[in-house]
Specification:
Blueprint lengths: L14 H16 L3 H4 L5 H13 L6 E2 L5 H14 L6 E5 L4 H14 L2 E5 L1 H11 L3 E6 L12 H11 L2 E5 L18 E4 L14 E4 L43 H17 L1 H22 L1 H5 L13 E5 L3 H10 L5 E3 L3 E5 L7 H18 L1
Parallel strand pairs: 2-3, 2-4, 4-5, 5-6
Antiparallel strand pairs: 1-7, 6-7, 8-10, 9-10
Helix pairs in contact: 1-8, 3-8, 4-5, 9-12
Bound molecules: pyridoxal-5'-phosphate (PLP).
Length: 371
């Protein structure tokens, strides 16, 4: 059973059929014409709009250009800084995912800004102390280690009160928690296509640019697919209208097809139902773990209060990597993060309560044996 938070889940049963359909009925007979005749050129926006329904974004604000989350974040952070040329600081949480820290460090070097790296608590004080000098804040709604939530609306409002642009990394929230990007007045957001969105290994990332920013946003990765007239082959870059300007180059078509296919059941279920089911699974895990081994609950690294948690749970466990491997041998796939953390993620559509019960039992067993 798959409870692993970094690359979630099995393919849908009919994924191969969908890929075969595109290869046999589109690529093989039409070849290059597929870009125009089969909607391939529009797929980055089509898939973006489907993701948008899960993110609380009206159509035309999300695109899947075909990049990694790291490159997409670079694109977004530089663009955010360019919206605040006169401000010398960038802000990020110390507990951010490593790639976010690395990209923020690189952008700060590239653009001659100073990076403030703050604890979760220090983040708000830094906004208060230096707000008028902060160009952009890079922030995540779910701590990738502990699963602790940061509310998108209030944080965005505090950044805006200081005049800073927000760049949200939604990787651990999209497809499992409501993010309400439009209602929360988020500026820019990115996230992985292969976590709860289920796009499969290496699925491309998505980028959200709020409609109100689209006419002025200046993205550094200005590839030909983001040009107003890509096939005019003009030497100068003229950005396309709307979210199309956030496209880069020729998109990885088959990966987009796989991601699109994975989104079907998620968008049909809707984010509220997905979130309810995720909550029910994680609460059930805690009940089962507590019954089996009350000590396990004392090892919870996530907030005890469900309302303060995202879609996964984390436990402090000595020799976490060893525990991960032992559980894998027993058919339970979860993941470990140094130093001593295991993460258990509950993808709403294919994890069942029976599997959760089984996973809690196996985990208690492995931990008791290693004591
Ligand atoms: C929160 C977060 N941001 C960014 C990334 C990096 O994504 P990519 O490897 O697609 O660049 C990850 C990868 O796990 C992640 O968890």
């Amino acid at each position: 059973m798959h409870l692993n938070g970094n690359s979630l889940g099995p393919p849908r049963a009919d994924l191969l059929g969908e890929l075969e359909r595109v290869v046999d009925r589109q690529w093989a007979p039409r070849q290059v014409q597929g870009w125009f005749a089969d909607g391939w050129l529009d797929l980055p926006r089509t898939v973006g709009d489907a993701i948008g329904t899960l993110l609380g974004a009206r159509p035309g604000q999300v695109v899947v250009a075909g990049e990694t989350t790291s490159t997409t974040l670079f694109n977004a952070v530089v663009a955010a800084c360019r919206l605040r040329e006169e401000r010398p600081l960038l802000l990020i949480e110390a507990g951010a995912f490593p790639t976010d820290l690395y990209i923020a460090q690189s952008v700060a070097r590239l653009l001659g800004r100073r990076l403030l790296v703050e604890s979760a608590a220090g983040f708000d004080s830094a906004l208060q102390a230096h707000g008028s000098r902060i160009a952009a804040a890079i922030v995540a709604p779910v701590d990738f280690r502990t699963g602790e939530l940061r509310e998108i609306g209030p944080t965005t409002a505090r950044c805006h009160a200081a005049g800073a642009v927000t760049v949200w990394d939604l990787s651990h929230a999209a497809g499992v928690l409501p993010t309400d990007l439009d209602d929360n007045r988020v500026d820019l957001a990115v996230g992985c296509g292969y976590k709860y969105l289920g796009g499969g290994p290496g699925a491309p990332a998505y980028l959200y640019v709020a409609e109100r920013l689209q006419p002025t946003v200046d993205l550094p990765l200005s590839g030909w697919h983001g040009h107003a007239a890509p096939f005019a082959m003009s030497p100068d870059f003229v950005p396309a209208d709307g979210i199309d300007r956030a496209r880069t180059g020729t998109p990885p078509l088959l990966s987009l097809v796989a991601l699109h296919h994975a989104l079907g059941p998620l968008t049909r279920a809707g984010i509220e139902a997905l979130s309810r089911r995720n909550r029910s699974l994680s609460d059930f895990f805690l009940t089962c773990a507590g019954e089996r081994s009350p000590r396990l609950l004392g090892q919870l690294a996530s907030p005890g209060e469900a309302a303060r948690r995202g879609g996964h749970l984390a436990l402090n466990v000595p020799d976490a990597a060893k525990v991960e491997h032992e559980l894998a041998d027993r058919g339970v796939l979860l993941d470990s993060r140094p130093p001593d953390l295991i993460r258990i993620a509950f993808a709403p559509l294919y994890v069942s309560h029976v599997q959760v019960w089984h996973a809690a039992r196996e985990l208690a067993h492995v931990l008791e044996r290693s004591r």
